[in-house]
DNA sequence: ACGGCTCAGACG
DNA sequence: TCGTCTGAG
C-alpha cells in the first residue's frame, strides 16, 4: 500500500526518464539493420512464437502490442522482426539489457541525484542544477535555446501546429513566470541536453517528464513518445489530474484503483477531491488515506534516492503447466503387488529410470518394493530435477553478485528461495510454498548448497507430512540486503604486508619473503563448478579462498611461519578453518534448518535458525590502480575463520578481526567459546 | 498452460 | 526479523 511522505518545503525539479522500447533499441544497436523496422523482442520462441516483451514504434503502428504472442504479432504485422532474448543456462538472460541500462544511468547521473527506478527508467533531482542555471545562464539570456528543449511539450500550453516550437521557446524564456516554473524551464533544458548526450553516447532515445515531484514527472514521461519530453507547469496540474483516470496513477493500477472505482465510484483523480482525508483514511487506513488525499492535489513528497544500483539480484524461471517439475512428467505405470497402495497406480519419473539403467541408482531405490520406498524414489528423482534447475539459477545469481562485488564493492547478505508448487488432488492445494532465506555465503557451490537446503525446508513445510503428487511451477533465488563495503577495511592487510609491499610481512617469523603473486588463490569458478559449464572469459575476475584446498591447521600455521604471508589471498587462506571441520560445524550448528522427518522435534531446529554466518575481507589495495574501478576481491565467510588461528595473531589484528564480528541477535544460537559466529557489519554506523 | 522475469516497498 | 502481498515495467 502506498504511503504519504512529508514533502519538502522548497520547490524541486524532478525528472523521470524512460527509455523508448528499450530492449528493442538494445537489439537495434546490436544489429543496425533492424533500425526503422517493425521489431519486437520475444522470449521463448518455442511456444506460439514466444511472448513479446518490447515492441518498436513501427510495429506498434501495425497494432502489435506487448503481451501478444509472437504468432499473433506475425499475423497483424507479417513483416515484423522478432528478436529473441539471449538464453543462458536454459533461461532468459537479461544481462545485456541490464548493462545497457547502466550505460544510460552513468550519463544521467551526471547532473544531480539519480535513482535507478528500473532497468530502463530513472528519476533525477535536478533542483540544484536548475537553480544554478537560473543564476548563471537563465533561459532568457541564451540566444539560442537548444533544439531539443524547444521541442518539449508543455502541459496546458496551446499547441497550435506551426507555432508550437515558437511558443515553447517563449514559455521557456518567460521572464514573468513564477520562480517554480522558471526552475522547471531550466530543468527542461538540462534534461534535453542529457537526452542528447544519451543519444550521442549510447545511440538510445528516451522520453522524459519534468515536474515538481516524482509522481507528476512519472505521469507525463510517457505522454509523448518516443524521444520527447513533457513539462508540467504549476498552473496545469489541477486540470491535468482532474481528468486523469485513476488507473493511470502509479500505485492505482491494481486492486486499490479498482476499489476506488467500485467502492467509492471514483473514476478520475479529480473525483477523489470530493472525499475528505478522514473518509479516505477510514476506508484505506491512515497512511494510504493521506496518500490518496495528497495525490489528488498533486502533492507527493517522495524523494529521489541517490541510488544507481539495484537493491537486490534475482534469478527465476517458471515451469508452467505441463512443464512443471514433477515426478510423473512421463508416466510409467506400475502396479504394485503388495503395498499400502496396492490398488493404486504409481508413477515415477523417467529420470529415475534412466539413472537406474545407467547403474547409478541402487536397486533398492527402484519402485519394486513397498509404496513408501517408491515415494522416496520418486521424490529423489524430483529433487534431482529441481536441483538441476536450482543449480542453474544459483550459478547465474552467483555470477551476478560476484560482478557486483568486483565492480561496485558491494556484498549481499541474504539468500532467499522462492518457489511455487501445486499439489495434485489435494483439498488444500491452495496452500502456498513458503519462501525461505538464510545468510548468503559467496561461492557458486555454497549458494547452490544453501538454496537446495532452503528448498527442502520449504517443501517440508509445504507438504506437511503428505508427500504425493506435488510439482514445482516456479523457482527463484534472490540475493538481497546488499551493502557497500566500507573503505579502509583492511588495515590488516597493510599491517601484514607492511607499509608498502616491499617491506617484509610483519607477521611472519622469516623476515624477508618475496612477494607472492597470489598463486594460491583459486578462482571460484574452478573451485566449484564440477561439470565445468562453459567457462566464459573472466572479465569479472574475482577470487575466493578455496576452503577445499586449505591444509590442516597445524600445517597452515607452519606454512605461515616458514613461508610468510603474502597478499590478501594467503591471509584469508591462513585464517580459514579447514574444510572438513567447516563441514562438521555446519552440520551441527545448522545454518539452515535441515530437512526433518515428520515427527522429529522442532525445538532444536528453532534454536539453530538464522545464525549469521557471513563476513567478508576485501583487498582494496589496488582498487585505485584499476582504471575501470573493478578490482579483485577476496571473500571469506566468517564461519570459515578459524578462531584458533586468530588467537595467534597480534592483539591489534585480533581486535580488528573482532571488529568484523557482530554478536548474534539470536540468543538460542549457542556457540563454543570464542567461536566466530557472526557477520561483517554493514558499512555505516 | 501461459506474460516471463525482475525489482521495490508496505504490512503484520 | 522474516515472509507475504501488491504493484510496476
UniProtKB/TrEMBL annotation:
Task: Tell me its cofactors.
Answer: Mg(2+); Mn(2+)
| Keywords, alphabetical | DNA damage, DNA repair, Magnesium, Metal-binding, Nucleotidyltransferase, Nucleus, Transferase
Task: Give the matching Gene3D superfamilies.
Answer: 3.30.70.270, 3.40.1170.60, 5' to 3' exonuclease, C-terminal subdomain (1.10.150.20), DNA polymerase, Y-family, little finger domain (3.30.1490.100)
Subcellular location, record wording: Nucleus
Enumerate the SUPFAM superfamilies for this protein.
Answer: DNA/RNA polymerases, Lesion bypass DNA polymerase (Y-family), little finger domain
GO process annotations (BP): DNA repair; error-prone translesion synthesis; response to UV
What are the protein's GO molecular function terms? Answer: damaged DNA binding; DNA-directed DNA polymerase activity; metal ion binding
What EC number(s) has UniProt assigned to this enzyme? Answer: 2.7.7.7
- EC primary class: transferase
Q: Where do Basic and acidic residues bias regions lie?
A: 523-540, 578-589
What do the Gene Ontology cellular component annotations say?
A: nucleus; replication fork; site of double-strand break
Quote the biased-composition stretches of kind Polar residues, using this chain's numbering.
541-550, 620-635
Catalytic activity of the protein:
DNA(n) + a 2'-deoxyribonucleoside 5'-triphosphate = DNA(n+1) + diphosphate
Renumbered to this chain, the Basic residues biased-composition regions fall at 663-673
Q: Which residues form the UmuC domain?
A: 14-253
- PROSITE patterns from the entry? UMUC (PS50173)
- Give the residue ranges for region: Disordered: 501-565, 578-636, 657-685
* Low complexity compositional bias, start-end: 501-514
Tell me its family. Belongs to the DNA polymerase type-Y family.
Write down what this protein is called.
Answer: DNA polymerase eta
Q: Which organism is it from?
A: Paspalum notatum var. saurae
Organism lineage? Eukaryota, Viridiplantae, Streptophyta, Embryophyta, Tracheophyta
